[in-house]
Amino acid sequence: MLAFRLLRVALHLFRGLATCAFAFPRLGHAARQQRIQRWSARLVALAGVEVRVSCRPGLQPAARALIVSNHVSWLDIFVINSVGPCRFVAKSDIRDWPLIGWLCEKTGTIFISRGKLRDVRRIYQGLVASLHAGERVAFFPEGTTAAQGTLLPFHANLFEAAVEAEVPVQPYAVRYTGKSGELHAAADFIGDMTFVQSLVSVLRSGGMTAHLELLAPIETRPDTHRRELADAARREIADALGMPEGREANRA
């Protein structure tokens, strides 16, 4: 059974490779976005994950915004893309993942090298340009994945892009639960776990639900400091996840 499910996921990944290689060059931006959304939704479904989207009553998500979310798993990218495709900022390590790395690159992922100030500046300029162009841009301010029930300090650097592009910050909160509503440990992608090991863990989980909550947009002003935005986003996400915000300071 596991082998069959792995085969279905692998075939879907190869279909994605073929789409990026042969269809994307002939498609306009809107058509590519539709393909990404459908493909992501199918991948998540093949992994046995049901996506549920929610927001607070009366909340209107921002039409143009810099999207930020807590980070649990490689699944996060595809859960969010299944709702609305984004250009993600991701660690350069992901580029080396089998199949997934190439797919992420071809679908517009922006890769960043950790610890390289010059790379952060390059990424920042690209984010501002993308936001000015009306693109949906997202990143994970924790900088890495964290086990569910944990919210790491937020790096604040890239929040500056929202200020310069004059768009709000749109926080998302994501969590994965089992049939009884408990946080599902199989979603955790931490430590030295490889993508393949994580995929097998998810497929063996017996199914889980991804809860994606859209939170209130955080408005920006020309004098808004990036740390202020990072603090506000972390508070919103911590509250949505039902966890104490903690005393850890956000990162510059």
From TrEMBL:
Occurrences of domain Phospholipid/glycerol acyltransferase (ranges): 65-177
InterPro entries, A to Z: Plipid/glycerol_acylTrfase (IPR002123)
This protein's UniProt keywords: Acyltransferase, Lipid biosynthesis, Lipid metabolism, Signal, Transferase
Signal peptide: 1-23
Domain of life where this protein originates: Bacteria
SMART domains documented for this protein: PlsC
Metabolic or biological pathway, per its Swiss-Prot or TrEMBL entry: Lipid metabolism
MF-aspect GO terms: acyltransferase activity
Record flagged with keyword Lipid metabolism: yes
Name of the protein described by the UniProt record: Lysophospholipid acyltransferase family protein
Protein's organism: Noviherbaspirillum album
